[in-house]
Specification:
single chain, alpha+beta, four-stranded mixed β-sheet
């Protein structure tokens, strides 16, 4: 088999698919690190991808502490014109956050690079009741 034939036999992955897969992996690693920081700092671990406002909407919080109704949203794409910063996505996020507030949720927002920091863990610690400060 020639090198040209061998190359064609391999499944192709588009560059955009590879980039998306890489971003997902980095996001998962950041969440894992955030959860580890929470454990180390004696902050309860959050629930991931918590659905709220059902059945009217299929909205989810990235991370949530259910009993005190505290949510942490990771807002990506701030510098790349991502979904959260373009018109339609921005307006949809406003509707989501406003409805969550109506339902009694407190929402904190961070960028991906802020997620896995002690500053973010401490911000959540201060918001959570019954967690030693």
């Amino acid at each position: 088999m020639s090198p040209r034939t061998a190359r064609k036999a391999q499944p192709s992955v588009s560059p955009s698919t590879a980039v998306a897969a890489g971003r997902k992996l980095v996001a998962e690693q950041r969440v894992s690190l955030f959860k580890a920081l929470c454990r180390r700092q004696c902050v309860p671990e959050p629930t991931l991808e918590h659905h709220f406002a059902q059945p009217e909407r299929a909205w989810r919080f990235d991370l949530a502490w259910l009993e005190p109704k505290i949510a942490l949203e990771v807002e990506g794409g701030a510098w790349t014109k991502g979904r959260h910063t373009r018109g339609g996505g921005f307006i949809e996020d406003m509707a989501k956050y406003n409805r969550a507030t109506e339902l009694g949720w407190r929402i904190f927002r961070v960028t991906p690079s802020q997620l896995d920091t002690l500053e973010t863990v401490e911000m959540i610690r201060r918001a959570l009741p019954d967690v030693p400060k």
